[in-house]
Amino acid sequence: MLKIGALVSGGGTNLEAIINSTENGSVPNAKVVTVISSKEGTYALERAKKHNINGVCIKKTDFSDFDQYMQAMIDHLESFEVDLVVLAGFMTVIGEKFLEKYKDRIINIHPSLIPSFCGNGFYGIKVHEAALEKGVKVTGATVHFVNEETDGGPIILQKVVYIEENDTAQSLQQRVMEEAEWKIFPEAIKLISEGKIEVVGNKVRRKN
Ligand code: GRF
C-alpha cells in the first residue's frame, strides 16, 4: 500500500478527487494517511476530517527559520511512514532538505501544459489569464515530479483541455480542474502505486 501525505493550502478539490479514487477502488493500492495544511482552517482540512484522515496545520510563521519548518514537515510525514508526497494546491516552495529526503517521491499538479504558462509567478487564476491573453487554443494540466526548478521536474501525465470562444479565466480554471486535474492526478498516483513508471534523467519512463 502506497502511503500518501498530501500538502494543501486551500479548497482541496484535488485532494478530494485523490481520496475518492482510493476509496472507490479506482486507485486500490494507495491511501492518503495524512494531510498537512499550510494555513489554519482550510477547507482541505475539513475534507480530510470528513474522510477520517489525519489533518494538521504546519505554518511557516511558527518557525524561526525555513529549515526548521521543512524539518517539522519531514518529521510529521515520517511519523506516518509516508511513501509519496502529493502537493495538492500547496502554495509554498519546497526547500532543499525536503527535496533531498523525498527525491522522486514528490508530485505536483499544475493547471497548464508545461512548459507553457508555468514557473515563477504562474499560479492559480494567473495561469488561465495568461493562456487567454496569449490566445492559445488548447491548455490543460500536468502532473510532474517536483525538483528544485519550479514546475520543472519530470512530467508524468498531461491532459489537454480545449479553450472555448467565450471562456473567462474562471470558467477555464473550472474546466481544467474538472476535465483534466481531477482525472490525471489520481491516474498518476495509480501508476506510481503499481510501480509502472521510473525517472530516468529528466524524463519519466513507463516500465514494461
Ligand atoms: C489547482 O488548480 C492546482 O492546479 C493548483 O492549485 C489548485 C488547487 O485547487 N496547483 P484545489 O485546492 O485542489 O481545489
Write a structural description.
With 208 residues, the chain is of the alpha/beta class. Helices cover 36% and strands 25% of the residues. The protein is built from 6 helices and 9 strands, in the order E-H-E-H-E-H-E-H-E-H-E-E-H-E-E. The protein has a 7-stranded mixed sheet, covered by helices on one side. Strand 4 (84-87), helix 4 and strand 5 (106-110) form a beta-alpha-beta unit. Helix 1 packs parallel to helix 6 (169-193) and helix 5 (125-134) packs across helix 6 (169-193). The radius of gyration is 16 Å and the shape is globular. The model has no long low-confidence stretch (mean pLDDT 97). 5-O-phosphono-beta-D-ribofuranosylamine binds at residues 10-15, 44, 88-89, 109-111, 177, 181.
